[in-house]
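I am still getting used to backbone structure tokens and would like to learn alongside you. Label the sequence line and the structure token line clearly, so we can match residues to local backbone shapes. Would you write everything just below, so we can both look at the same thing?
***
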Amino acid sequence: MKKTSVRRPDRMGGTRAVFGRLSPVRPWFRGQTPASLKADALAGLTNATIVLPQGVAFAIIAGLPPEYGLFTAIIVTIVAALWGSSRVMVSGPTTAISAVLFASLSGLAIPGSETYIALALALTFLVGVLQLGAGLAGLGGLIAFISHSVIVGFTAAAAVLIAVSQLGPALGLAAGSGGALDRLSEIALGIDALNTDAVIISAVTLASLIAATRINRRLPGYIIALVAGSLTAIAIGAGASDVAMFSPLDAVLPSFGLPELDMNTMGDLLPAAFAVAFVGLLEAISIGKSFAIRRGEAYDSNQEMVGQGLSNLTGAFFQCYAGSGSFTRSGLNAESGAASPMSAIFAAGFLTVLLILLAPFVRFVPVPAMSAIILYVAWKLINVAEIRHILATSRSETFILGATFLTGILSELDFAIFVGVVSSLAVFLNKSAHPVVAVGAPTEVNGRRVFVNAEAFDLPQCPQIRFVRIEGPLFFASVEHVEREFRRMEERDGFKTCILNLKGVGKIDLAGADFILSEARRARKRGNDLHLIAANPSVVNVLKRLHCLDVLGAENVHPHKSDAIRLAVARASDKICTFCEIRCFNECRGKPGAVQPAPTTSSRPF
């Protein structure tokens, strides 16, 4: 007997893909030249001057000592650059993740304490594991299902909370505790204790930062502002008026250490880890994709997830907290002429040098100056133009934006992510369950005869044939809506032979096939018929597999609408055609009665 060979799944291909994503030898290594290295070095130096004060500011937002933000800007940046997919995106500490981390951990330990730091490192470890696992599992495409309005609403809520938390220190008052409303209430009650020197320092720092960024974005505006604020503090003798100053850094360079991975603690941190991991991936992939499209470069979401996961996983062992892609630093990197991920690696190296040189001067930086910088960062975090665009163009996206923002302000920031994701998926499912079902009729546009929406353009329709187009999936969730639209058409215009255009239908399941069969039987019971227009081979194969052709007949399934119209008109009642004055189809010229010549019908969809 002849042996039958059984084809086994190619497990080796999947294994090779995993090892390819984890390999430290990256494809962009081959493209390095002296010119590209020079361009990357210059871009890296510019980025290092920006991230030095940003790293301190973001660590403060996260409730961590300043050096942890700087360590994150070194270790996380290097690993994400090596294993990520984007050629210009710079990863490291970000405002949004810092805010989520603080919101998640501040209820479990006192911010800045040893316990809090240990929780932050354990959380970062979990985030890295989740992101790495998602990347290796190929889940990058799922991010596309989450509306961009989620991240817009979330970052706006984070910006408000960050600004409120820094308003007190900028005025020389206590930072307060609780939510945004509680903190504002505490500031209002303690306004009599406002420190005039702190206000002056904040104002000078903020004005210097705004002026520097307007003069030239490549200027180290944050450093200039901090120097201006520090000199102002010295000039007015702020130390004598109890203006708070930064403590010296406990360490200048990161050191290796194992995070405390207690199983009970890990279970408590898991919900927060999911929130931080999701925000980080959403930020990184959004930024990476936008720059890849802008620069005409390839981009792999799954590889980016691997890069982000490895960076956070590694960072947890080197005193780093969770990081992600930074739009500000990535934009500056691209504008500065970065040619490859080496620019981010150079930035981390230059930051290390700057940190060694400037660490002794941290004790001269007044807290109100850094608070002013964080207030500026919070303001820039709110995408006003995008919010206006969403409010003006889409009710569903406005709902997602509003739900995410209000939840972040009134409840917990990490819970806002959950609400935003659920709202986004609910809107997506609702749209999928309500595809466009429209009646078309031919009309003349620019000398050509095309099909358009008959109701929208108030066009006359054939008394015997109804031309219907569905735009969206025809599956179990949408069948009820489509059937309701068909009954509405019958109530308005009566029973007719239906030509159903399925070119806009990408998916048909068993429920969709049952609907088609039901409509065919319903039409034939009244002496009419159902014709399908289906050119997509996958749709035709589904119709065959679900036995639709057994009932309809192969002659009732057409690749072009002209074929369907020709057959439907030929079978139409000559008695009715004789007295019809509409004659909307070209094929009507072959029917009895007065014939009105018309140009050839276009095959373009309505």
In short: Confidence is low (pLDDT under 50) at residues 1-7, 598-606. The longest strand covers residues 436-445. The chain is about 60% helix and 5% strand.
